[in-house]
Specification:
The complex is a heterodimer of chains A (363) and B (128). Chain A has 363 residues and is of the alpha+beta class. Helix content of chain A is 23%, strand content 34%. Chain B has a single domain (9-127), classed as OB fold (Dihydrolipoamide Acetyltransferase, E2P).
Chain lengths: 363, 128
């Protein structure tokens, strides 16, 4: 028995197959993972992501503190409500977690971090906050629901008071705002338009049912995984962890090198690795033969072996796709050891799918 | 409640067997198995002619989430595989006892092994 979100009874009512995910009892799917996946690509899907950890950071010095803590630079967030994706690094440049940070006010930011990394993240944040003037406050009384897909914002806007709908629908990508008790952010983990909505736990079930009734289809973590993989988005613990740097994880774009005098944790190691060239890289793979890529399969390249970090069948492409960490010098074609057979795979640049459409050549 | 046709034999590992008039045996996976696996997206079938030992992994079925081995409960030689599964692995979900059959095996001896269950005994294993 794991932790349960405020929506657990709704998952049971909907006939979800429940699985353990980072200590939480979460829905894997409600019948068909593939149909749920397609619903998000073509219409609107609803996800319970209340297992994720919301942390509010407050204090006069919070911006400077975050600029030291995160590899991306919160000074890029100019207006309240703007959001940024960043890695949280250790001194060795390894990724403690990946997260989204929202700029709420000059003395107030909000972070959403992964469920499975909750304890180590909180202890890292608390230790760095000691004596800094920043308070770290977890918000376990908040639940989180994602509505994702081309029709998601339109359908989900019924959740808002009529007077707030236009303002909510006008939110730019990677921007959030508070409407009554709802914190609405135009972010997601699917490669589609949509919202992530933070709501008080005691109002979560009502919000969920309102969205269900508006035609937003409940989707489990299974679809969430194939959607994020198609969208070229990393999953912490599979595609990167404490022992890999962002440069080895396809996340170099999230490191803010400028201004050069911003001293962030892990910077020295990343600078050295950038100068010398990272020995490994994370790439997208499209399996050319029949089969399915899975995590930990061996990847054979002329430059040495690598490993699949995430792999699955792509419902949108009808082919198997994945990410792999391979030697930096690996070329365009590699082979993957699937049950003792070497199958051909092509190195492609993620995302595989964005906004419902394939972004790669299939043949 | 999953379907368990009374005329079939079942392995504890969720394969079904159906003796055919020509002496061969058809093998597939049970309705319970397909439901537990979820949407199937790939099936790896053995080469025709391959000989199988009892309990040997003879095929792989992959759902969106994971790969699972299929075991032959009996000894024999593979005489046919279901070619339709190459392009329509979802047949395993939609019709596990019919169009979703996986292979035909010519048994080297009888199929009445103590490990094989009748429908009632297989149903009982699912209730645990």
């Amino acid at each position: 028995m794991g932790d349960k979100t405020p929506l657990y009874q709704d998952h049971e009512r909907l006939g979800a197959r429940i699985v353990d995910f980072g200590g939480w009892d979460m829905p894997l799917h409600y019948g068909s993972q593939v149909e749920e996946h397609h619903a998000v690509r073509t219409d609107a899907g609803l996800f319970d992501v209340s297992h994720m950890t919301v942390v509010d950071l407050e204090g006069e010095t919070v911006q400077a503190w975050l600029r030291h803590l995160l590899a991306n630079d919160v000074a890029r967030l100019k207006a309240p409500g703007k959001a940024l994706y960043s890695c949280l690094l250790n001194e060795q440049g390894g990724v403690i977690d990946d997260l989204i940070v929202y700029f709420l006010a000059p003395d107030r930011y909000r972070m959403v971090v992964n469920a499975a990394t909750r304890e180590k993240d909180l202890s890292w944040l608390q230790a760095r906050a000691a004596g800094s003037g920043v308070t770290v406050r977890e918000r376990p009384e908040l639940a989180m629901i994602a509505a994702q897909g081309p029709s998601a914002r339109d359908k989900a806007s019924t959740l808002l008071a009529p007077a707030d709908r236009d303002a909510a629908l006008a939110l730019e990508p990677f921007t959030a705002a508070q409407f009554g008790q709802l914190f609405v952010a135009r972010t997601g983990y699917t490669g589609e338009d949509g919202w992530e909505i933070i709501v008080p736990a005691d109002a979560a079930a009502e919000a969920w049912r309102t969205l269900e009734n508006a035609g937003v289809r409940p989707c489990g973590l299974g679809a969430r995984d194939t959607l994020r993989l198609e969208a070229g988005m990393n999953l912490y613990g599979q595609d990167m962890d404490d022992t890999t740097t962002p440069l080895e994880s396809g996340l170099g774009w999230t490191v803010a090198w400028e201004p050069a005098d911003r001293d962030f944790i892990g910077r020295a190691v990343l600078e050295a690795q950038r100068a010398a060239g990272a020995p490994r890289k994370l790439v997208g793979l499209l399996l050319e033969d029949r089969g399915v890529l899975r995590g930990h399969q061996r990847v054979v390249t002329p430059a040495g072996d690598g490993e699949v970090t995430s792999g699955s069948f792509s419902p949108t492409l009808g082919r198997s796709i994945g990410f792999a960490r391979v030697p930096a010098a690996a070329g365009e074609h590699v082979e993957v050891d699937i049950r003792g057979r070497l199958l051909g795979a092509r190195v492609v640049r993620p995302p595989f799918v964005r906004n419902g459409k394939s972004r790669i050549q299939l043949d | 409640m999953s379907k368990i046709p009374a005329e079939l034999k079942y392995a504890p590992t969720h394969e079904w067997l159906r003796p055919e008039d020509d002496g061969s045996v058809t093998l597939g996976i049970s309705d319970h198995a397909q439901e537990a696996l979820g949407d199937l997206v790939f099936v790896e079938t053995p080469e025709v002619g391959r000989s199988l030992a009892p309990g040997e992994a003879c095929a792989v079925v992959e759902s969106v989430k994971a790969a699972s081995d299929v075991y032959s409960p009996i000894a024999g030689a593979v005489t046919a595989v279901n070619e339709a599964l190459a392009t329509q692995p979802e047949l395993l979900n939609s019709d596990p006892y019919g169009e979703g059959w996986i292979m035909k095996i010519q048994p080297t001896s009888g199929i009445e092994t103590p490990e094989l269950l009748d429908a009632k005994a297989y149903a009982a294993t699912l209730e645990d």
